[in-house]
Specification:
538 residues, alpha/beta, seven-stranded parallel beta sheet, 19 helices, 20 strands, 40% helix, elongated
Length: 538
């Protein structure tokens, strides 16, 4: 788009940009443009039109660096002009300076939540959703802030004088639905008259039916529960103007049979926003079948499919070594939060039991657990009471926890998309993280395939040697002793007799003897190595 720079001032003119005719009252000379870039306060006049040629140019406004092609400033009209021009490349700008696209109740809520800087997907979707009417397909990595990308404009569009359900958000899992509900509730905290309901599976339906009898503006639902409510005629979405499909690629299996039922209950004239981290053929087919012909496609930082903040590594082990190598790794991450992914519920339970025996601060999460247990485990994980979550792919979809330092693929996933979603649990919101795949020799060929398909790079983590494993096992043994609960059934006489045996030993001497006994019984390499060193000294 070429506009050019007018060299005169004080004249009224018109200019067409993106087929929109705009009034231009005063234009700046090149000298004034340079002064303006240095500081707006030095500029005089009613308004300025800046044309910056293609290249790395920037303009500063209220401490907000905005990369732009064109800026038109006119006192009292800046917001209107910006909206009409659709200039929204504000990756370095904070929400307070977001050209007043968002209403004050949202800005105030974001301030309370200490959310200052919009992510790339938010800067690209929010203006489009607010100022256009087309359906939207947004492709962005997991953990980039998609919920705010659709949630903020959704809330701004709610008419609180209209008591019908105006927006429906579909999520693939209970946990994700509950997370979206919490986010939207937080975003709308300064406008409590917006009524939001969460209706997800796995919990009693009757309280949800009672809740829907009250005025409701926004419904967050899992597909199965929404279909159940529709069939019971317990929900009316016939006046809903906005449908949001969040994490659509994870929801496709559930939606294949049920989406027709949901769509049939919605009005034909509606808007659909589809958010996804990957774009498999099934999603493209869904877009073709259920969205309008005129769709706005948005992509945010998808040059590489995987999150650039993630360090992808793999370690090759023998089957018999797998658990011990994992536990050594977990000990190096003590005090940090992480998620371990297994393929099946049975594998989750088995690994969780072994980690619990070795006194790791961990919990299991999968679809067969009751909602109460899942909520309790997730609450403990979010609040930092447990550091490690062992989970299946689907159960972990609703996890949006900050400061997850690492994820472990204890079993490689079956699909590339699943790897993207797993690894995306870490390095969220611009942070750094590690994704470690614990693989066997016959799985080594899968690594180049992942690299090629997802445009990511793996580095090999060297497997720790047998001595390090034995030393780690000794630490785990000591931890078991430390965390063992006293046995009140032991008689006082026996306690006294044992104390008599040890009474002449110091604390250090007792520890040394306990360790020596433990290592001798495990035929430890620590003992053998120690002996060989003594022989060399002789």
């Amino acid at each position: 788009m070429q506009v050019g720079l007018r060299q005169h001032t004080g004249l009224t003119d018109k200019i067409q940009i993106n087929n929109i005719e705009l009034p231009v009252t005063i234009c700046a000379t090149p000298e004034k443009i340079q002064k303006g870039i240095q500081g707006l306060d030095t500029l005089n006049g009613e308004g300025y039109l800046f044309f910056l040629s293609e290249g790395p140019h920037s303009f500063w406004m209220k401490d907000c660096k905005i990369p732009i092609d064109i800026i038109y400033l006119q006192q009292g009209k800046i917001n209107e002009i910006y909206k009409r021009l659709s200039i929204y490349n504000l990756d370095k700008c904070n929400f307070n300076n977001y050209l007043n696209l968002l209403e004050n109740f949202l800005i105030d809520a974001l301030d309370v939540l200490d959310i200052k800087t919009p992510t790339s997907i938010q800067t690209k979707t929010i203006p489009v959703i607010l100022n256009q009417k087309q359906d939207v397909v947004a492709l962005a990595k997991t953990g980039t802030g998609k919920t705010a990308g659709f949630g903020l404009p959704l809330l701004q569009g709610i008419d609180t004088q209209n008591n019908s359900i105006q927006a429906v958000v579909l999520a693939p899992t209970r946990e994700l639905g509950q997370q979206i509900f919490k986010n939207l509730t937080d975003f709308s905290s300064k406008k409590p008259e917006i009524s939001i309901a969460c209706v997800v599976g796995g919990i009693p339906i009757k309280p949800q039916i009672e809740r829907l009898k009250k005025d409701t503006h926004v419904v967050i639902a899992t597909p199965g529960r929404l279909i159940d409510l529709i069939q019971r005629e317990a929900i009316d979405i016939s006046k809903t103007s906005l449908l949001v499909l969040d994490e659509a690629d994870e929801m496709i299996a559930v939606l294949k049979e049920g989406l027709d039922t949901i769509i049939a209950s919605l009005p034909k004239k509606r808007r659909t926003l589809l958010f996804t981290a990957t774009m498999p053929g099934s999603i493209k087919q869904m877009v073709q079948n259920y969205l309008s012909k005129h769709v706005v496609d948005i992509q945010a930082d998808m040059e590489t499919t995987g999150n650039q903040g993630i360090d992808h590594q793999y370690v090759v082990v023998k089957p018999i070594e797998k658990l011990e190598v994992l536990m050594h790794f977990l000990n190096t991450k003590e005090g940090q939060r992480g998620i371990i992914f297994c393929k099946t519920k049975a594998a989750v339970n088995k690994l969780a039991k072994k980690l619990a025996i070795n006194k790791f601060s961990s919990g299991a999460l999968h679809g067969s657990l009751t909602q109460g247990i899942r909520d309790r485990i997730m609450g403990q994980f979010r609040e930092g009471h447990i550091d490690i979550l062992i989970a299946t792919d689907v159960a972990a979809r609703g996890i949006d926890v900050k400061q997850i330092s690492y994820v472990v693929q204890y079993h490689l996933p079956d699909t590339y998309d699943a790897y993207v979603h797993r690894s995306g649990r870490t390095a969220r919101a611009g942070a750094k993280g590690l994704s470690l795949s614990v693989i066997q020799e016959d799985e080594l060929a899968d690594i180049p395939d992942l690299e090629q398909e997802l445009s990511i790079s793996f580095s090999k983590m060297e497997k720790v040697d047998a001595l390090a494993i034995e030393e780690n096992n000794t630490i785990l043994w000591a931890r078991k002793i430390f965390k063992a609960k006293p046995n009140k059934a032991i008689s006082t006489e026996l306690k006294t007799a044992v104390k008599t045996v040890f009474h002449h030993l110091t604390k250090d001497e007792l520890i040394e003897k306990l360790m020596a006994n433990q290592l001798q019984h495990t035929n430890s390499l620590v003992v053998n190595t120690s002996k060989s060193k003594k022989k060399r000294k002789q």
